[in-house]
Fold this sequence. Notes:
This protein has helices at 19-30, 45-53, 67-70, 83-92, 110-118, 132-140, 161-165, 184-190, 196-204, 254-267; strands spanning 10-15, 35-41, 60-61, 73-76, 96-99, 121-123, 143-152, 177-183, 212-217, 224-232, 236-243. By secondary structure, it is α/β, with parallel strands linked by helices. Oxaloacetate ion is lined by residues 128, 193-197, 224, 243, 250-252, 255. NADPH dihydro-nicotinamide-adenine-dinucleotide phosphate is lined by residues 15-21, 41-44, 47, 64, 77-80, 82, 100-102, 127-129, 193, 196-197, 200, 248, 251, 255.
Amino acid sequence: MSGQKTSNALRVAVAGLGSIGTKVATALDQGIEGLTLSAVAVRDPAKHRAFISGLRRPPQVLPIEQLGEAADIVVECAPSNHLRSIVEPAVKRGKAAVVVSVGGLLDNFDLVDLARANGGRIIVPTGALIGLDAVNAAAIGTIHSVQMVTRKPIDGLKGAPFIVQNNIDIDNLREPLKLFEGSAREAAKGFPANVNVAVALSLAGIGPDRTRIQVWADPTVTRNVHRIEVEADSARFSMGIENIPSENPKTGLITALSVIALLRKQRATLCVGT
Length: 274
Ligand SMILES: NC(=O)C1=CN([C@@H]2O[C@H](COP(=O)(O)OP(=O)(O)OC[C@H]3O[C@@H](n4cnc5c(N)ncnc54)[C@H](OP(=O)(O)O)[C@@H]3O)[C@@H](O)[C@H]2O)C=CC1
Ligand SMILES: O=C([O-])CC(=O)C(=O)O
């Protein structure tokens, strides 16, 4: 398959074929109005050969840095340390980058300026969260506070840098333990694979320094639970979501579906919701 543009369909590339990327690539291959899967990037091509060759129209396999050449929209679904290598080449060429590792954006915020200067775009899906439409709307007025509480099962938190660095034993917990309380920016450093949602919430609202979050390790829950309270001059609202973990216990199943829903809107005739 060539990444050359042969129709007016938007070419979409997917970086990373893990829990989110495989579902997004499959949905594109099965057909999303006006979009075509042009390329993917993987760490280990041998591991993903069967999946890629099993697609109806197998895309090119490229290094992550080259996806921006082969696509109009690059969907970042890799660990956050690869964010820059994926997003920079795309936005430099005036392409759109859909970013799921939103926490990684905070240390690479110059990419937003780069996109602006080159006519590119960085699009953050609602992901594993809820209600960013309302937060966006409230932010047009004045939001006084945004508070979030995240509870995850033990398996969903294992290996988080905050837990490792502070030598916290979560394996034998019998009761919920508050691990962290602070800003979304600090939380993203300590839990890079766990609180992308808090960063997305903060970018929709009052920013990563004023958005407050608690992170709990909770042996009594089986889902990734996020509760949010927003106090604004237009409204007060509470939101909650209980995500079923995917094959990656850190990642809720709804995350890939949120990306697919966002892609569907790119060329859809009927768009509902902001
Ligand atoms: N915004 C949101 O609401 C949410 C965001 N996330 C974030 O989304 C991201 C993806 O999550 P998820 O799909 O669960 O993660 P996975 O670990 O399941 O998948 C990541 C994939 O990236 C691949 N990868 C690693 N290095 C490279 C590389 N150099 N080039 C290409 N591919 C590479 C891995 O390859 P391999 O298979 O070979 O190891 C793997 O397939 C994470 O950063 C996660 O924290 C997660 C949940 C919610
Ligand atoms: O899937 C979830 O519930 C949230 C998550 O991992 C993240 O924000 O990184």
